Amino acid sequence: MKRLRLKACQRRLAAAMLWVSATSGLLAPIDSHATPGFQFGVIGHSFRSSAEETPLRQSLSGAVQQAPAFIVATGIKAASEPCSDSLYAQRRSLLNDSSAPLIVALAGSDWSACQNSAGRSAAVERLNRLRELFYGDAESLGARRLTLTRQSGTAKFRNYAENAHWQVGKVLFATINLPANNNHYRTEAGRNSEYEDRLVANRAWISRLFALAQRQKLQGLVLFSDGDVSVQEEGLLGLLPSLRNKQDGFAEPRRQIRVLAEKFSGQVLLIDAQGTPGAEPVINWRANVGHLSLAAWRAEIGVTSGTAPLFTLRGSSADVTP
């Protein structure tokens, strides 16, 4: 009788172990230093042309079906939508439903043009609210969570929780708050304290990322932003009429990234949400710097260790009609 009870217990234990094994892929956190070959998803600014949520839902569904290591989504609302807590919470809930780890890279339309009831700028207050709602802990959104390192972990830059980095395989990934509207540089006198403070934080952040990638001898660094820093067009920007008579809000990060990329032994991929509507995205390479600019597209990018290029655009889809 004891022998029968023992065998029954063994069978129940084996069944329990089998269940854990079968479900561990759903419950276990990602091993950030795992497989040398993987892919990740990027969703362009789905709210760039419309306040409709359907394109974002379609993009999320399509990206998840590709079994990405993670997804980065740029922007949570259209410029025409209200900057309300309720809308922010609604979009957070939508993005948090992703079955894959999801990281939000802020767009300028999420905060930089927000105004209060008196018609004055509420950009700083709304940016701080977004930080509370979306970046309150050291994890991504989604059913599976990815551990992140936030710049706010450094006392000097405790306000900049939206800047985060994480590692998968031999590649370092990071977000940086560079809004597309000229990096939120304002022409009115005395109105640039937010821009100037963030410039200091971003300078330290960029230096930290390249130093970390170089110290760990990583093969790649991927930087996600809303605005196009235009690192590859450095010599042409002085000829652009739109920039001749105004401050270039991206001048400093552009120079810094370019200088540090030249010293970096790996490959650098810059991804922004300022692609041309209707134009299919492509990764353009110059030396060791690649640039991918998305409009309202969803893209899957493959990473294969030991190859040149390290990053390959495997698929893209225009889930939004611009």
Notes on the structure:
The protein is an alpha/beta fold and 322 residues long. It folds into two domains: 1-29; 31-318, Purple Acid Phosphatase, chain A, domain 2. Helices cover 32% and strands 19% of the residues. It is built from seven helices and twelve strands. The protein has helices spanning 2-27, 54-65, 85-96, 123-134, 193-215, 241-244, 251-263; strands at 37-43, 71-74, 102-105, 149-150, 164-168, 171-175, 220-224, 267-272, 284-286, 289-293, 297-304, 311-318. Strands 4-5-6-7-8-10-9 form a seven-stranded mixed sheet, covered by helices on one side. Helix 3 (85-96) links the parallel strand 2 and strand 3. The longest helix has 26 residues, at 2-27. The termini are far apart.
Supply database-style keywords:
single chain, 322 residues, alpha/beta, Purple Acid Phosphatase, chain A, domain 2, 2 domains, seven-stranded mixed sheet, 7 helices, globular, disordered N terminus
Reconstruct the topology from this structure:
Elements: H1 2-27, E1 37-43, H2 54-65, E2 71-74, H3 85-96, E3 102-105, H4 123-134, E4 149-150, E5 164-168, E6 171-175, H5 193-215, E7 220-224, H6 241-244, H7 251-263, E8 267-272, E9 284-286, E10 289-293, E11 297-304, E12 311-318
